[in-house]
Amino acid sequence: MSADEVPDRGEPCIRLRGIGKSFGGVSVLADIDLDIGTGEIHGLVGENGAGKSTLGKIIGGYYSAGAGSIEVFGETVGSWTPPLALERGIAMMHQELQLVPALSVAQNVFLGIEEERYGILRQTENVRLADVMATSGFALDPAAITSDLSIADQQKIEIMRALAREARVIVMDEPTSSLTADEAERLHETMLRLKETGTTIIYVSHFLDDILRVCDRVTVLRDGSLVRTADAADETKGSLVSAMLGGSRSETPYPAKVRSEFAGEKPVLWVDGLSAPTGVSDVSLEVRPGEIVGLMGLVGSGRTEIVRAIFGADSASSGEVRLNGIPYANRTPASSAERGMVMVPEDRRKQGLVMTVPVRANMTLPHLKHFTMAGGVIRAALERGRVQALIDYFRVVPARIDGDVTHYSGGNQQKVLLGKWLMRDPGMVILDEPSRGVDVGARQRIHEAIADLAQKGAGVLLISSEIEEVLGLAHRAYLVHEGTLVGEVDPDNATTQDVLWTLFHQDDPNIDTSRGSAP
């Protein structure tokens, strides 16, 4: 059966039988039987490491199954690759972006499916992109270079790439992890429109409310095994979490906020009048030992640019930074780390981890001189012991110090990244989207680690696009708009609605936003 001969709506377009997959001898999927109906939105949920992204990549042709069979549109497939999957009408958008940084938006969207005549490219990408943007509801400059765009805008490109291929089945792996609430809602509307045309969408997400709102059916995976598939209407957030984690557990609240015994001391980080060419303007803030301080703003507000200028990843044009009371000029990432200030970036694959080396090397790479004896000999036992302790602390799965990080789930990669920068117990930790793209189990462990940092006396500066996360973890929080701070809120006495109302009305001169709450 060709991709044009699609089964009737509701009939399976994909049948998986006995699917298994292992990486380096570690099983990540075992004996998966699953039918995906034509014209349905089918959710895949589970903890990070449960196998949901791996299963999606097997369907999309990016991984070959180690066991079992795949039937697509009524035909059993043998060799299975992304081009073959696309020929059969299956496209995939990845959680970890698969873009060419030097190409434009339009070039990335249509890469590999350019129009040509007599072997010559017709350069029609910009015109074709207008139709894709109309379908998706996104608006980007077709000529913009991808590397110059934010992570959120790059994720929109990834979504449009899948839409441009006019696939009959689209695997979406965490497509909303970097989108605003409004952008995510537009994507959901697009998914529902595609469903009405008979397109099947396999939706991998850790946002369970979204899964329940847009999916027809949902499949729960745990530890590489299929727990159950059920109608979304018959599930609740609590029932899904219980199935994902096992037993009768439900979603865990944020760790209790306890003021550290160090909180009354002088600021570990003090910033005054900081400005930078990246759009940072006259930023003044402080973080005390044992304090978690949040930066809250809309996507594109300049939160990341502020912390990059503080850390030294970007140069500053004016202002003063003091670390532990000592003026700190000429900042660089390397010198900041040596002074005990570290930063966990938002893009773990491009800015955080080296995907070609194992877990151990990723964690110890910035700290090698502290594991090295005279003559450059690595103290292997010390290195291995410290890495294993961090793996155990963060509950990394698989718990192998020489595991191949490329094959780890997004949440376990994030835990490795956190372990890398917490290796030497830093005094000041900057976290940019620390729980982006992770499930409730990994999220809970990361939140516990952040609370532990503060309890041990470290200062924490936290960025999250999820306002609830900042309110749930932070002792204090600053509001960010267009690269500057526009207010401060008490997380214990503010709501998400208060914060959003204030941020969305920053440009309205007729509204007093100083009180930080809606009327």
TrEMBL record:
Keyword Thylakoid in annotation: no
CDD domains given in the database record: ABC_Carb_Monos_I, ABC_Carb_Monos_II
Gene Ontology molecular function: ATP binding
Highest taxon listed in the record's lineage: Bacteria
SUPFAM superfamilies for this protein: P-loop containing nucleoside triphosphate hydrolases
InterPro entries xref list: AAA+_ATPase (IPR003593), ABC_carbohydrate_import_ATPase (IPR050107), ABC_transporter-like_ATP-bd (IPR003439), ABC_transporter-like_CS (IPR017871), P-loop_NTPase (IPR027417)
ABC transporter domain ranges (all copies): 14-248, 258-507
Alphabetical UniProt keywords: ATP-binding, Membrane, Nucleotide-binding, Repeat, Sugar transport, Transport
Gene3D superfamilies attached to this UniProt entry: P-loop containing nucleotide triphosphate hydrolases (3.40.50.300)
Keyword ATP-binding among record annotations: yes
Family from the record: Belongs to the ABC transporter superfamily.
UniProt-recorded name of the protein: Sugar ABC transporter ATP-binding protein
Lineage: Bacteria, Pseudomonadati, Pseudomonadota, Alphaproteobacteria, Hyphomicrobiales
